[in-house]
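Good morning C.,

I know you're traveling, so I'll keep this short. The sequence:
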Amino acid sequence: MHKFLWALARIIIIGAILGFLVSRWFGINTPLLKKNPPAEVLLSARIGLPPGFSISVYAKDLPGARMLRFTEAGDLLVSLPSEGRVVLLERDDNHDGAPDGRSDLLTGLNLPHGLDLHQGRLYIAETDAIGRIRFNARTRRTQGEYEHIVTDIPGGNNHWSRTVRFGPDGLMYVSVGSSCNACVEKNPKRAAMLRYDSNGGKEELFATGLRNTVGFDWHPVTHELFGVDNGRDFLGDDFPPCELNRIEQGKFYGWPYANGNKIPDPDFGAGNEEKIRNSQAPVHEFAAHTAPLGITFLRSKNLPPEFKNSALVALHGSWNRTEKIGYKVVSLHFGPNGTITERNFVTGFEHKGDVIGRPVDVAEGPDGAIYISDDFTGSIYRVYRH
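The tokens, ready to paste straight into the viewer:
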């Protein structure tokens, strides 16, 4: 018995030493074990919010919950890529702080991620295709067959998620992440934003050099397109920054030759000085490894004046850093002179290395509340004014 305990102790000690060395040498420090949604008492104790706001768990048991989209009827659509499902959460008509029901809208999809609604159809970004189906928001039912309208999107690899959204111009925008941490892509559709008509035709390579722009949205007043981008890994705890880019047609945003404000990449910068010089610098920099995913501009009149036309960004949190960072939602405030100020909006999902949630996407509900998906606990949170 003593030999067994001694052997077990040695395994634990060696594992701890190896874990420490891996963290220090490679900067790997990521939450591994999925958790249940935090209890209300823990939320109240841990989560920091602006004055006048409260938070609650709106829905749970949604494994790997990612992107969100509200229907015209006020129901919430949630993508569950790991399960190949899109779930519909019925609006909370009885005001008990939870959906009145739920159902699988679509199943059997290939890593469904981005969602959008356009002219009576639900559009879904799978990892290698864009599909759509007729959807009646009033009856909460799909109609007819699900069809793929774009089928030649490069799928899988390092950044597998795809996001689809319709712009003010009525055209369909699709973001495709890189296949690697840092490399020169063979497929020009990687690390890029694509644009199509609503039927998946007239494909354009809209913008390039975007390593992994998961979330993007249009400013409510200027209609400028902004997207968040994840910086590369294995260059230290504090470099390179993650980015907010103003995405314009035909522009190149630097990856893999440059990081942040046109700083040459140590692996790919040399010999590509002209490309770096002609690249677009980010309009705002997030801290390195914070991993911004969802971004949503706020349009509700029920929010305090300081949030008018601001954007909320979900920072999923670091994995390639010796000490964790991110794991929160921040607000971006756009000044008249072009300045962008970042403020904390929801904090406390990480405290002294302990993680109880990882924000992915942010959606503004018809009730004026803010809804946040969390793929770590499979939950949706509701942030509301009290």
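Safe travels,
E.
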